[in-house]
Amino acid sequence: MRSSNPVFSRRGFSRDNGYANFNAQQQAGGPAAGTNPYATNPYATNPYAQDAMVGAPAQAPARTGAMTIDDVVSRTAITLGTVFVTATLAWFLLPVDPANLGTSYGIGIGAALVAFVFAMIQSFKSKPSPAIILLYAAFEGVFLGVISSAVTTYVSAGAVPQAVLGTMSVFAGVLIAYKMRWIRVTRRFYGFVMAAAIGFVLLMAVNMLFAVFGGGDGLGFRSGGLGIVFGIIGIILGACFLALDFKQVEDGITYGAPREESWLAAFGLTMTLVWIYLEFLRLIQILSGDD
User: Fold this and answer.
1) First-to-last CA distance in the chain?
2) Which of 14, 128, 252, 286 has its CA 20 to 30 A from that of 57?
3) What is the dihedral angle through the alpha carbons of 263, 267, 269, 274, rounded to the nearest 10 degrees?
């Protein structure tokens, strides 16, 4: 299945999908007859190649035009760098002091909505678009800058460094666990994460609706003891999505995905890291007593 939303689904790079055909084309010097280099497979049918499922993916030789780990690292650095730059600008240019709080919040929420639109556009495109991905990163950065500034100003001066450190720690921990094969991404793992994520998001949406129409914090899923529990669940889900991201990258390299797919990998990694950062920020806010 083509990645419809990098947060809630991941592309499986397997030998019997379009990327195997891409490899064949590279060897033959042109398109293979009757093949489509962007053909897709439903995860329900074959989320990963069978040898990848048992932890022994076949090693594909490097080919010109195929994605490499350097491509993924560089694209991810560009995307996260864009988030960081616009977040820093928003922090300084959109102060959250009492005189500007409403305006800054309004711009921040507007930026979040625009980022969501760009994310959805990219999610339903047949190919990754660097321009759309970077626009998503830019507007997401504005939102993060405003929210981070507000938490620093009204909750805890050390909240942002703590959230960043927590996000980096989760990333490093999951990467080590994945490389050591302590985490094995299988169809069952994928299905469990997707079901848990859908349930989590639905609960948060219901809580938000109750908060909007009923006042307070809705059903209390984002405050007090329940808020802490759901914050931890959100971070764990983010860690699981990182494992899916790493699997996406590994399979893309193994099965010779086109180099442009490194932008899709960068997009998914960025969205996952933003998810984890926001969950840490919310958890710190609750623990600081301002929920």
Assistant:
1) 39
2) 128
3) 150
- Could you tell me which residues come within 8 angstroms of residue 177 by beta carbon, excluding any fewer than 6 positions away? 183, 243
